[in-house]
Fold this sequence. Notes:
Low-confidence stretches of chain B: none
CATH architecture of the largest domain in chain B: Orthogonal Bundle
Shape of chain A: elongated
Radius of gyration of chain A: 23 Å
Number of helices of chain A: 2
Mean pLDDT of chain B: 88
Structural class of chain B: mainly alpha
Distance between the termini of chain B: 38 Å
Oligomer: heterodimer
CATH topology of the largest domain in chain B: Rna Polymerase Sigma Factor, Chain: A
Amino acid sequence: MSELSQKEQLALHDFSVRYRAALAKQHQTPEQSLDTVRDAVREQYEQEQEAKRSPQIEPPSPSKEREPDEPER
Amino acid sequence: MDDLIKLVRTYRVTVGLAERLRLAEAIFRLIESDLRAFVFGSITNDAAKKDALQEVLKAVAVSLKNFKGDTVKEFWAWCYRIARNKLSDHFREQYSERVQPLPPDELLQMMDVTAQEKPISPGLRHDLEHIIKLLTANKPDCSDLLWKHYVIGFDYAEIAEERQLSYDNARMKIGRCLDEARSLAS
């Protein structure tokens, strides 16, 4: 079974670095990505605040505050 | 990379929104390009890959406080697990966009984009062309395996988890794909 030679490994490393650099260059300002992240953080924060507030309105519940879900598969 | 895990740990215990936003922005400035490389390497349709990237970023951001690990390696494995799940959802919905390797000429153009800052000697160009041939010569399934293992950096255990294979089967399959790529590329 094949393994990469040392020369191939070096070239592959160079390829990977350049591939990422080219992607970053083509999309220099990931402002859209940062907006998505900010919105997600705000949404998450608001859900937490809501969860903290709701026990004061609803009858006391013995259950613990639910942790946010991991993304579903 | 130590900075990354420090930021993630701090984010986990941060309560205030303004501070969370600042930390999240710093974290995603460090990880966005790698997640982009992963998503863009998996989908060919331009519009679809941009949407998929935003879905992946959102999923990681929403779950950031749930990350339980303590090392950079664990953090990346966790990020890629979320990304893989999101891409699986995406492919279930739009199966026709299933993984296709980027064409070799497109990858070569991407190498040239970087030549201004980091010149490519004739020898290196030859080696890069060889690597691109290896990564793209196979059928899509094999190319995807080689890409994920050698470019994205998934280890055999991660490939095994993704493909629902045993560790040894994943290792052997990658070896066979590399053999096949060599014979097709030569």
